[in-house]
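Training component of the fellowship. As part of building independent skills, the fellow (R.M.) carried out the full modelling exercise for a liganded target. The chosen ligand was glutamine. The inputs are recorded below so that the supervisory panel can assess the work.
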Amino acid sequence: MYNPPPAYVTGSVEFYNLKIEVNSSTLIPRLESELLVEHALKRISKKEAIVLDLCCGSGALGLALKGARRDLHLILADISPDCVAMTKKNAKSNGLAVEVREGNLLEVLKEGEEIDFMICNPPYVTTSEYETLDPSVRLFEPKLALVGGDDGLFFYREIEKRLSTVLRKGGKAFFEIGKDLGEGIKKIFNNPLWCDQELLQDYASLDRFFIVARSEITL
Ligand code: GLN
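Fellow's submitted model of the complex:
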């Protein structure tokens, strides 16, 4: 018998000064994801920028950005209706005005709609890694939010295919990644549409974040 993670028992966690409600449909926001919020805030200087939180889950990342920078326009999106509902609930309880959309990856953007920045913590655990995850994660947290295909890179590849058409030139994308995915994600973004790659580490000195800028090139 394994006990559920405390966050599912109490129903919420503290994340970047916000109280974020979670349930078994949403991944529990991890402490290290606060670092991604910090990295993004340091690099978003444009006032009233449009920021998309893709694969928003409970809404933690996007809501944290909005909480820290009220001038930003936040769109948060997820394919799971339960996550969309939870993000709306968390936006309301924290008094944050954001837009929440349901849909598959970048298809949530309307025809011709552009964004200045994107923050994204997609499922990135590999199929084989999933079997070795701690039972406290594997037995209780949503598989849909965790597994990113056989090499963990499925969602980054899918997102890169379309991202250059919606991210404004000079805009940046902030990703959380699995600890072994640094080289793989660098390769995905190794084409002239992208520049200024940064691979950053978490508290355990493991590769955990990847930041990339949209170059001035149009193909
Ligand atoms: N960091 C999570 C874990 O340790 C995985 C999050 C994700 O796949 N986006 O299980």
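The panel noted the following from the submitted structure. The chain has one domain: 6-214. The chain has eight helices and nine strands.
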